[in-house]
Amino acid sequence: MSRKANTSKNAPFESSCERSAFTKICKDMIESRAWKSLKPRQIGLYVILKSRYKYNPHTKESNKDEIVLTSTEAEELYGDLRTFRTDLDILIDRGFIRQTFSGAPFMKANKYGFSDKWKVYGTDNFYIPEEDKRYKRKKQ
User: Fold this and answer.
1) What's the pTM?
2) What does the domain layout of the chain look like in residue ranges?
3) In degrees to the nearest 10, what's the CA dihedral of 7, 10, 16, 20?
4) Cα dihedral 12/69/56/61 (nearest 10)
5) What is the CATH class of 27-138?
């Protein structure tokens, strides 16, 4: 039996379009200890990063380790890059994202990937490896 395509429509408060792409955030993540430790600004940054995630169910390919937010885009969102970097570090420290490529030495954009370490945040099993952290913080 073949699967039936999802034909549900967006509610008027969800989108300006009848059918539109969406960003999925699961309830167990929202109820997690790590999520509850975030400030609204950091949640907003996570949602922006997550909205850049693309997955093709037919080919099973995704960009989950190649999420880019340029410094120009960050400056437009935040106004202050220091605050943006602080919020990135908090998302890394809580286990939601990790840095997969440091563009700092090459004057290129950093790449980030999603992590599931948030699931064990606050337990003895929680650990963020140095290679997941941002380039500047690795030297500390």
Assistant:
1) 0.86
2) 27-138
3) -50
4) -160
5) mainly alpha
